[in-house]
Amino acid sequence: MDSSNESEALQRSDVKSFFDSAPPLRNGNLISERLKEFIERNSRSSESGRPVGVVCVTSGGTTVPLEQRCVRYIDNFSSGHRGAASTEYFIKAGYTVIFVYRRGSCQPYCRYLPEDSFLEFFKLDEDSTIQVSESHATVVKKAIRDYRKAVEEGLLLKLPFTTIFEYLQILQMVATSMSSFGQHGMFYLAAAVSDFYVPWESMLETDPNILLQKADMALKKYRMHVVVANALATYKKEVVAVTNSGKTTICKHNEEEDIEEQLINLLVAMHSKYIGQVG
Amino acid sequence: MDSSNESEALQRSDVKSFFDSAPPLRNGNLISERLKEFIERNSRSSESGRPVGVVCVTSGGTTVPLEQRCVRYIDNFSSGHRGAASTEYFIKAGYTVIFVYRRGSCQPYCRYLPEDSFLEFFKLDEDSTIQVSESHATVVKKAIRDYRKAVEEGLLLKLPFTTIFEYLQILQMVATSMSSFGQHGMFYLAAAVSDFYVPWESMLETDPNILLQKADMALKKYRMHVVVANALATYKKEVVAVTNSGKTTICKHNEEEDIEEQLINLLVAMHSKYIGQVG
Questions:
Q1: In angstroms, what CA-CA distances link A153 with A34, A108, A150, A233?
Q2: Which of the four pLDDT bands, split at 50, 70 and 90, describes residue A98?
Q3: B272 touches chain A (CB under 8 A)
Q4: Helix, strand, coil: what percent of chain A each, to 5?
Q5: How far apart are CA B245 and CA B276, in angstroms?
Q6: A 64-123 → B contacts, CB under 8 A
Q7: Is pLDDT at B115 greater than 70 in this prediction?
Q8: Which of B167, B176, B159, B158 is nearest to B195 (CA)?
């Protein structure tokens, strides 16, 4: 084995250990079905002369989780602007695009929209019809028109990722699916991909049993009036409001209810009592 | 000095060294003006019995940058759902809210909207009026109505952050501004705040001079056909397409143009030539 073969064998074993140690892809079956349908449609249409080619555009940054139930992670910053813009120009040039993008990053045909909440530029008129404020009307209408055209003509398949594990597993699925296109397939890898990862098995988990101890500690150390304690796994269903005089557990009564409604009512009552005592 | 005083003095010196070493807040003046205007309006209206109180809700996770021109950072995951939901319930209870949120995290009144691009649920009818697809009409209209009401009545001030430096500097400004409300002010700190930071001065910068060397290396190592090299500071203005047979520099001609238009045209031409040679 010469040194180039040796280095290749090493790379292959690195790749194998990465995929072996990765957590299973959620929605793997759904992604697989959507890919299959997209590839089949494009194989048929290429017989009639269209599309020019199929390109997989990756976009945005990957994260490296530092915990299994992930709170902390190392992120690679990327707005996703280049990937989103390039997707539009590939479609314009006659390609179909598999857009593999970081959740929340810049989307094709949305680049000229305001960055803030889209609620900023809509209002309702008297008969409850949605109106776009004059200043944004042109860009919003163009965005809707171009996006719908790309989706309705089947020119754009969007697949989101967050972690380095999801990114590489999805990319592998896309690569396998696209092999049928031969030289007509292209990979345009604009994503900012982490150049390291923390093996899934080696991550330490936090201990939910010390939650209330930590809440008591925070109450004293930071001189808070209330600490609202919740475990990551159940934070939408149960919280405990910890004060110097005791603990109040709040549970969600039913699926439709927000636990925040009870929580804010409790805090407002405490605040009102506090104002009465002090003021 | 007893041990509790000693520990307080230590904390104060930690706080001082944090703020001394933090990079200056961009838009600090703008934030200061918006805060001032909001506080003044709410001081006036509280004389007429409204609002019940003013609450600063923090929401979403902070990042710890690992580089000054930041590509990599350690992030604290938080959807921002609790902060956004709580903001809605505080407003319902008669409070005004200063919503200090991580850019891109969950926004008040948007929690029931589809997560994906909002373009998914709009379409244009024949006379170019924006229509909401039937399935989403109720939630979208409610979201627009509630959001506009909160903003127009001056009940909600939104201030975005990304890094731990921005978060703590903005929180300090809000705390100073809110002191005039006395016991009527409340802090509801739902943000997931990093419990460490990397001092700004100690960060190493990447060297733009080795860019093309790295591109050549990647071309060989990963057997790419093309590597598109760009420096972070100029990535929207200049890129270099590096192949085995040479380098092509692409520059933006004017402000209106996307550099991706030229880049994709070049790649499409290269791809077409490649298909011709191989196929």
A1: 15, 15, 5, 41
A2: very high
A3: yes
A4: 50, 20, 30
A5: 17
A6: 66, 70-78, 81-82, 85-86, 88-90, 93, 95, 104, 107, 109-110, 116-119, 122-123
A7: no
A8: B167
Q: Taking CB atoms and an 8 Å cutoff, what residues of chain B touch A147?
A: 117, 119
Angle, helices A164-178 vs A3-21, to 10°: value is 110
* A103 neighbors A191 (Cβ within 8 angstroms): no
Q: CB–CB of B174/B32 below 8 Å?
A: no
Q: Is the pLDDT of residue A3 over 60?
A: no
Q: Which residue of A has its CA nearest to B81?
A: A236
B5-44 residues touching A, CB cutoff 8 A: none
Predicted TM-score (pTM) of the model is: 0.80
Give the residue among A16, A31, A14, A25 at the shortest CA–CA distance from A166.
A25
Q: Tens of pLDDT along A15-61?
A: 888 898 899 998 999 999 999 999 998 887 655 555 679 999 999 99
* Residue B261 contacts A, CB cutoff 8 Å: yes
- Confidence (pLDDT) at A112: 75
Q: Is B62 within 8 Å of B161 (Cβ atoms)? A: yes
Output the pLDDT for position A1. Answer: 44
* Nearest-neighbour CA in chain A from B63: distance (Å): 9
pLDDT at residue B277 in the model: 83
